[in-house]
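User: Good morning. I'm curious how nicotinamide-adenine-dinucleotide would be positioned relative to this chain. Could you predict the structure with it bound?
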Amino acid sequence: MQEIGHWINGRRVAGTSGRFADVYNPATGEVQAKVALASKAELDAAVEAAAKAQPKWAATNPQRRARVMMEFVRLLNRDMDKLAEALSREHGKTLPDARGDVQRGLEVIEFCIGAPHLLKGEFTDSAGPGIDMYSMRQPLGVAAGITPFNFPAMIPMWKMGPAPARGNAFILKPSERDPSVPLMLAELMQEAGLPDGVLQVINGDKEAVDAILDNRTIAAVGFVGSTPIAEYIYARGCANGKRVQCFGGAKNHMIVMPDADMDQAADALVGAGYGAAGERCMAISVAVPVGEATADRLIEKLVPRIEKLKVGPYTAGSDVDYGPLVTRAAMERVKALITSGVEQGAELVMDGRDFTLQGYENGFFVGPTLFDRATREMEIYKQEIFGPVQTTVRAKSYEEALGLAMDHEYGNGTAIFTRDGDTARDFANRVNIGMVGINVPIPVPLAYHTFGGGKKSGFGDLNQHGPDAFRFYTRTKTVTARWPSGLKEGGEFHFKPME
Ligand code: NAD
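Assistant: Good morning! Here's the predicted structure, ligand included:
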């Protein structure tokens, strides 16, 4: 059985804790590898080594650091297929989707190539008589990132790009469910020229996470994952005096107005709801048609489209629309939530619980599931399902639909489908959610904007990637400088007293 260890000081090393977690092939249900779970001592040693490597890296001129990012982009493109295959094998998502996962991370690295420009700081000439004032964005030292299973390439790159681009050393603790790609990314970073020790990848579970939160050298922690863990990490990290940003779960509503193009809305809902088996924090999991007639038309359009969805293993290439869930536990949880929806009175239009695939009977598949007439009180509406389940809540009016999105405890993404500019504008202005789509179902901002939700989907002041990433991984220092005049006046050998 393959054993997956850590990446420390520029090489792969085996774990020493003696603890391991199983890594599955979700399509077959087989354990394909074991990943080492780091102890506190292993984590602390990796941080100490990172702290030693950091000052020299921070002193490297910003253009040279940016060139490492430039070369990293080239290598990511070179190895795209290899990375996508490794990603799909552990995560289960389709190969085109895995390429998208790598690509959206790569775009953040491209943005990091501009770090020298973004980090120039501010300067005020003659803030007072003979006084200049300037601000510098200095690295924090050692920062850490803790990332989820669902984007094992993109989300690590959101962090391992911006933090080192500004001269920080970085500790990545990826998800133990799909650990191979983060290690491959670290290897490529080294090949691109990143000095050993500047990026350490430590696999692990709660023990490694707690060691990060309690380590005195780590100055900042960025987390992405489920909300209960986000809240825990935010509280413990802040209590230990660290800069912390945590991004949690989601329940993204799509409002469908009566004037929307219903074919476009149905296509959007199918892609955004079932793509990646619903395992996306920006998946649309709640459809809110406004008015009974709109709801009837929408369901009528959705059903034939959902019936056509092809579910299967990533090895089928682009012949499948989505793959299995990540673990058996995830599959069981999604099925149990579907059952709770039935018990609590929602109308089950399509049931994916009994889905099976010949030759993949032990895979973690759930077929596409559609609920209609769900209500606010039901668990299928309150909880993030994180599976291929679309829940329809019928609203009587636009205000009721807006209220549903606003009252939900999550606030990651949302969308409205309409032909009316005034309604769309009102929605974008009033809704208390971080990322809004207007006739766009998954409004994931591009790398040069920032990504982040509110309410229980985001904790901390700054978003991820875009300019915010450079704010998060730097500390501003402001210098006020006065140089007494004198030297320019000729042969004076004494400084004049300050006037
Ligand atoms: P998770 O919370 O189970 O795990 C995330 C990370 O936390 C992993 O590295 C894991 O090892 C660690 N972890 C797990 N349990 C822990 C514990 N008890 N103590 C300390 N650390 C722990 O999340 P997941 O299942 O890997 O990812 C799916 C979740 O991530 C979903 O809720 C999804 O919405 C969310 N997500 C959010 C965003 C966003 O930007 N808001 C993006 C992607 C995913």
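The CA atoms of residues 207 and 346 lie 40 Å apart. The first helix runs from residue 40 to 59.
Let me know if you'd like a different ligand tried.
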